[in-house]
Amino acid sequence: MTATPKLIALDVDGTVLHEDGEVSAAVRDAVATASANGHEVMLATGRSWESTRPVLEQLNLVSDYAVCANGAVIMKRVGNDYVRHHVETFDPTEVLQLIHNHLDDGRYLIEYPDGNRRYTEGMTDWNLDGAEKVGFEQLLENPVSRVVVVSPGHDEQDFLKVVEDMGLHKVTYAIGWTAWLDIAPFGVNKSTALEHVRSWLGIDRNLVIAVGDGRNDIEMLRWAGQSGRGVAMGQAPDEVKDAATFVTSDVATDGLVSVLSSL
Question: How many helices (H) and strands (E) does the chain have?
Fold first, then answer.
């Protein structure tokens, strides 16, 4: 076991997983080696817990914690299972109505603190196992931990402009690779959740490494890079690379492997 165990936070899509949703043998082996050497390897993702658990299983990874919903949900391992240990929520009414007024073809998905989800017509490219299809007005009834908005009628740059013009307030949001928007409670992101985890584990800030490729990873990479290392994947947008202290190769060539091997 290493004398100085590190906290290694890994984004999922575009970092651990290839575009086809699979984990390569090289990444699986690198994660296993890092864990065997005593490092705390964990996932920090925008995914719900239901979509995160299968990735842990693909990796054969047993972590003390997992950060989901872009930091709004922190899962903790208790025995052989995980429980919702820390959950942030917000009232989605104002932001949903604002977005609804700006997007004629918007499709929506919300996640509640207990993990239940609701979605509207047309939300076809997301994992909807166990989710309930409802009308838009039924999304406004209770506090949520996450809102996802998809706008198929926009390309990425057009969508960036639309979101900028909305003037979203009192929430934290990140824009994905295509025209989709991920919204969390104000002031909540992957870095805020990971700071909780780091404190609970008692790991020094200079022993933190975070790896990601999306705009929802920017705060996480900056947080890690303040004292430790924030690593952007090679295919990441420029603004994500700018937030990192190091850029590895892209996910297609398993850029994560060289990061973990360098430990």
Answer: 8, 14
